[in-house]
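Extended Data, panel c. Modelled sequence:
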Amino acid sequence: MKRRILGRTGLDVSEIGFGAWAIGGNRYGNSYGPTDDDESRRAIRRAVELGCNLFDTADVYGHGHSEELLGETLRDIRQEVIIATKVGGNFYNRGVHPLLHDRIAEAVGMAVADIPPDAPLPVTHDACFDPEYLRFALIRSLRRLRTDYIDLLQLHNPPLSLIGRPETYSALEELKREGLIRWYGVSVHPPEEGLAAITATMPDTVQIAYNLARREAAAEFFPAARAAGVGVLAREPLANGFLAGRYEPDHRWETGDVRARMPAPYVAQLAALGQRVRDLADRSGYSAAQLALKFVLEEPAVATAVVGMKTVRQVEDNLSLET
């Protein structure tokens, strides 16, 4: 697995990173279908064997479960890997809006007042980027990941109004000074959010959506990121799995899979593109996923493509790509 430098962080990262959203599981209806923890562990270990050294997760993935699996599996080689996680989704019994008390009580089976303070909840009820909350959530991520520092902490889908304000990053600067994190960045979707992060001058990295279906970052964001020395992680390089070419336009997912909530016309569009990629792949010697990843990695501003993987088979297909 070839490596690239992640902007001004100087981190030497594998071109393909292990995206750990899916291994968080589908318990809270915000993932990619059922998982098997033993298979997830095997997939993590196999990724390491094949040269992957970047593992990207978030505290909200499985409400801590993804971090727990990574922490358990990587603890003996912690110094050999780069762990990136995200913060911002509030799924704790902290700052719960009163209007949500009945909904949460029904899901948990007890009154919110009887739930221990700061306990995880079955719903993500808010987004919070307050300094006190960021520190609170980071400490819990460190425990789950079985480490005393995070290589890269990213704000998880913050609003545009916060991204462009230097004050947003004061708490992260403090965590960096304390050695709890080495670097920090933002994880966003559209280019205007990534450009706002660059303009703010504070974030070391930007994780941004980029794939064959979403190419808008190429026009202005990538040149600006390279000029500023901001490291770029490409998120959703397979467009939620559609570019692997395995889904028909009328495919149906079980309740809880994030794709089950996507509008039917959008699903049909992505599925059709995935079929086209598969047809091209059949004539190129690549798998559809590899061809889609090859497109992303041809962009020189991209240091790593963060690919969702939850099985050994997916790991071996994705990481056998030669660029």
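The two ends are 9 Å apart (CA to CA). This feature is highlighted in the accompanying rendering.
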